[in-house]
Structure formats: C-alpha cells, structure tokens
Amino acid sequence: MKYFFIGRMFRLSGLFVLGILIMTSCKKDCPPISGHAVLVAGYEAMGEINYAKYWVNGTEITLSDGTNDAIANSIFSVGNNVYIAGTDGGPVYWKNNIERRLPVISAFDLHANSIFVSNNNIFVAGTDSGAVYWKNGHEVRLDAVSPQPYYPPGKHPSAANAVFVSGNDVYVSGSDGHNAVYWKNGVETTVAPGPAIGQSIVTSINVSGSDVYTDVVTFGGGRVIMVCYKNAVEIFGALGWSTQVFVTGSDVYVSGEIINDFSNGGAVYWKNGTVVNLTPNPPPPVDNYPARANSIYVAGSNVYAAGFVYNGTTDAAVYWKNGVETPLTNGTNNAIATSIFVR
Hints:
The protein is mostly beta strands. It has strands spanning 25-26, 38-46, 49-56, 59-62, 70-78, 81-88, 91-95, 98-101, 110-118, 121-128, 131-135, 138-141, 159-166, 169-176, 179-184, 187-192, 199-208, 211-220, 223-230, 233-248, 251-259, 265-271, 274-277, 291-299, 302-310, 315-321, 324-327, 335-342.
C-alpha cells in the first residue's frame, strides 16, 4: 500500500493471532521465484529499526540490512521476476532482492509507495516533497509547484499513492492539497474535493478497459469515510478506511478496515459494496483499529488479502485466502503486511 505516508499504515495495532508460524529465511541473493506464489510485502520491527521484508508462500526474505529504517510498500511480479517498492533511507525499489535507489531532488517527504511493471518498464509512484513517479529510474513530477523545504501548518502537499499502467497510459492516484485526485499521463483529475478541515485521498487506482476505478478516503469532522468511484462517479461507500481497489470482470473489490464508531474496527473487504469480514466485527475491545486489510488480489475464484492483526501487545503480519488467515510473523515483534500479489 499504499495510504502509508499519512501515518495510518505505520500504526502498530491488531487482533490476537492464533498459533505460531515457523518460517525459514532466504538469503538476499536467492534467485527469481518460479511457479505459483503468494507474494506478500511488508516490514517487521527489530528493536528500533524496521526491516523491509517479503514472503513467498510464507517463506520470509529480508531485503534491508538494518542500516536505515526500511519498509516494503508494494509488490509486483512479471514472469519469474519480483519487484518491490519501498523506503530504505530514501525511496528505492528491489528487483529480485537487489536494491536500486531512486533519484530525488529534495530532502523531504521521500517515499516509494507503489510499483507497476509494463512492457519491461518499471513505474514507481511516491513523493519527493510532492507527488512524483519514476519510470525506469527517471523522476516525473506531478505537482504544479516546485518542491519546498517545509509546508505551513494546515497545508497538505501533493502525494502519489499508487500507479497503474494500461496500454500507453500511466495513471497515478493520490492527493493534491485537500483533494483526492489522479493523474493520467500527467493531467490531473479531481475525484472528490476534500473538506475544509481534513483531507480526501485516492489510496489506489485500477483501470479496466476505458473505466477508471478509484477508492477515496476522507477524514475530518470526527469520522473516516471510504468511497469507491467509477469514472469519478460514486458506486458505493461506508464508514471505513479503504486501501486498494481491484477489478476483475464486472466485480469491484476494495480492501480496508471497517470503522464502527471511530474507535473500533476490523479487517474487511467490500465486493460490489457488500462488506466481507476478515476478522470479528465488532472486534474485541483490545485497542483502537485492531486489524486492517492493506491490500487485495483476486485470482480466479480465490480472494486474497494482506494486512495485520493485533494481539493486545504487538501487530502480526498476516494474509487471508478466502477468509482463512495465515500468519506470516509470530507476534513477537511488530510487523505489518502492506501488499499482496498472486501468480
């Protein structure tokens, strides 16, 4: 996901995880992954440092060495190659576990939030003191003004949360000021104006044929609302926090977190507006926002989601297949799954 840079993604909370998963680790020089795979990106806190990681069918691979705080935000696969976008002392992406740093022109608000590969071109969306994307390592700015060293109180800079490529068109979703927007080949479209106090953001984008699907989160006035749009027209919404939209055929899936009273929530996804609970709802009152699905992927009749659950002390990274939870970490350390891709 990503939604990451606003702070919700980094919040460490969830539900009780039953059982302990014993995992093996792969060295960073392991070869590209072949065959069917459930690929999940994320991170785990070890002491004071977050380590960027991903899991292949439950087997853990650590991407960062602990020199910097690091997070794997988005995962994508083409053929046997695995691509991951994230941060490691700045915006980076990994191809088959080899890290490549992305060039920046500022020293503030640096993130790589989403990755998409099309026709051997690697697209990464993120922020460099404003909304940007990188194509094969070359930065393309999306904000209308030059990057600035700081932002006045109450001002929301632009940000790019997700990238999707359809044919020759590059779509990037995010926010510009208070407004939820997306850019098509650099041209901005406002999906939803933000409130005067608060903000609206497009957390992700998916294109099917000529139709553009976006999911928007609006927070302000003491509540959080998610709305899914088709061509900037609302198709369904709920009290909740959405994280990713996935379209297959005529079905629209959105992952996220249901919010009952702005204090308790559970991991869910919506299918054509109907909510499907992945964790108990309402959840046990162990903490606010105890679980969330941060990403969703549909393969045939199988629905996969990835996120975290809280055990009262720490978060554990998990994924679900058709509602059945698989822990990726054992709950000893805080850990969150941010993105899922199935091939």
